[in-house]
Amino acid sequence: MLLASAACTSAPETPDETSSPTPTQGPPTTTASASPVPKTVTSALVRAPDGGSLLVRGRYPRVASRCVRYEQPRLAARYPGALSVKRADDGTLALTVTLPFEDYLKGIAEVPPSWPRSALEAQAVAARSYALATTGWDGEQGETLKTPICATTSCQVYRGIPVPFEPDVRRWYAAVRRTTGEVLLHDGRPADTVYFSTSNGQTYGNEEVFGSAPLPYLRPVVERDDGASPVSRWRVRLPFDDLATFLHEAGEWPGGRRAISAVGLDGSTVRVDGDGASRSMDLSTFRDAVNVWGPCLRPSRYPPSPLPITLPSRWMTLTSGGDAAVAVGRGWGHGAGMVQWGAYGKARRGLSASDILAYYYGGLRPETYPEPGLIHVQVASGLTAIRIAPSGPGATLDGETLGSERVSIAGGDELTVTTRP
């Protein structure tokens, strides 16, 4: 099941580029022989055929891992538009997709497309407003948005066209189309419409969550409609033996098999005691140790189903129970703006998208606002090599038609681009 993401922090990651790079050389060529002829370049630009897409598969550097079931990460994605590939200073590949703004919104993967219509529409308006606000959009209708946006939870999750394709995603596409041009505005500008998955019974002001100046449309509200979320209320048991291992690996507990005998939480400080040792740490440090090392070293136990991570939020208590620490908590996410599972519950109660948005964003309702024509999305970085397969004829590589050819690009000291049938 796709959980509503804990996405949308207060600002996107700092971008590496501000526009799609310009190719420095013409495309590589092929010969009649079976072996393609490589040609080194510093960047490459592959455009999808009109109305088509690019299937991109990529490899990341191999790294040593102590995790029990470590899986080498790989990229498998399908993107419309144009794919810019640039060699980073360390020789790896950075990928940026330039595509129509509405197509970008169709590729947002923040909530399940099976959700009620008004919840999807509320998410579409929030995603559109957030993208325009965080990139500083102030252009005219149809102009290119120069500032890129990232594709992770540091901005909002963009995955492109699902691989393999999921028919239900058409419901999300329809919600994007129905809300075309609709944005939440404050003082005539797109509002910073942050959102998150599941609450602890309320939301918080942006100044409490992000430390930014208070915004009138990001005020605390009571939340009573997100009870259907699988992380609405949760309880996790952490045997002391497991906890000692996780904290030791994180550098927060001494080695030598020193056992833990008690834990406690006072405000945001966790105290751990046992075998002549005592440690105090921030709750965020404690959660990071458990969330990182639990699934790494005990993947059959952590995170316990149906939780997305072992300790989903800071809204929790922590006590000792026999030979284990017991965490009881609520929610998942940063706590400001729209509660995605709350929007789901309100839609089930019959609220419109406009009413849902007004509840979370200080009475703001959708208004028509100019949209950019194109947006740059930083979809991946740190890759060692990629393969690109156009969906059909008409694709181009640095301005030259590819025909039925596929493109392979490798990093290293120089960018190496090859084409093959």
In short:
This protein has 421 residues and is an alpha+beta fold. It has helices spanning 101-106, 117-134, 169-178, 206-210, 240-249, 283-297, 340-348, 353-360; strands at 39-41, 43-47, 54-59, 74-79, 82-87, 93-100, 144-150, 182-183, 185-186, 189-190, 195-196, 234-239, 262-266, 269-274, 277-282, 316-321, 324-329, 338-339, 367-368, 374-383, 385-390, 396-397, 400-401, 406-410, 415-420. It has a 7-stranded mixed β-sheet. It has a 6-stranded antiparallel β-sheet with strand order 1-25-24-21-3-4, with no helix packed on it. It has a 3-stranded antiparallel β-sheet with strand order 12-17-16.
What are the SSEs and their pairings?
Elements: E1 39-41, E2 43-47, E3 54-59, E4 74-79, E5 82-87, E6 93-100, H1 101-106, H2 117-134, E7 144-150, H3 169-178, E8 182-183, E9 185-186, E10 189-190, E11 195-196, H4 206-210, E12 234-239, H5 240-249, E13 262-266, E14 269-274, E15 277-282, H6 283-297, E16 316-321, E17 324-329, E18 338-339, H7 340-348, H8 353-360, E19 367-368, E20 374-383, E21 385-390, E22 396-397, E23 400-401, E24 406-410, E25 415-420
Parallel strand pairs: 7-20, 11-18
Antiparallel strand pairs: 1-25, 2-5, 2-22, 3-4, 3-21, 5-6, 6-20, 8-19, 9-10, 12-17, 13-14, 14-15, 16-17, 21-24, 22-23, 24-25
Helix pairs in contact: 2-3, 2-7, 2-8, 5-6
Extract low-pLDDT stretches: 9-35
Helix fraction by DSSP (H/I, runs of at least 4): 10-25%
Specify the oligomeric state. Answer: single chain
Which class best fits the helix and strand makeup?
A: alpha+beta
